[in-house]
Amino acid sequence: xxxxxxxxxxxxxxxxSKSPCIESIAxxxxxxxxxxxxxxxxxxxxxxxIPFIGNCIASTVLFFYPAYKTYKAIETADKKDDxxxxxxxxxxxxxxxxxxxFRFLLSFLPFYHLLRFALMSSLIVGNFSGSQYLxxxxxxxxxxxxxxxxxxxxxxxxxxxxxxxKVLKKD
Length: 171
Known about the structure:
The structure is a single chain. With 171 residues, the protein is mainly α. Helices cover 84% and strands 0% of the residues. The relative contact order is 0.07.
């Protein structure tokens, strides 16, 4: 590891390891700032250049970790963590749906997948609570304005789905 840290000095990344953000995170996880930066650069390289590994990391951060936290929240009496995680899943679902529809256009943007991963990760990771911020600033005002219309559409779709299920059940 010492050899890698020496190589980091040769890359000119020394000044970045002295940033307050890197130093703060390094202190919290009890590693040297240079080591943290090296791990970050290595993970970033894997995400950018080996799609399979990037997808595995993304799946872990965006699905498995929140699912684990949701399970833990369900098992506690505290409702605040439930609200935080429900907000995450609502925001995540909307962003994921938007991304699924428009990915073919957006994927041509440089570093799209990395930016998408960073945005989606900021929804759940750490104390930032990006999902709660996006919900309160963007989604809540829009949804509360159109909730009546949305309720009608959802009720209509539910009714049609139940009718279709009854027809299929008879066959």
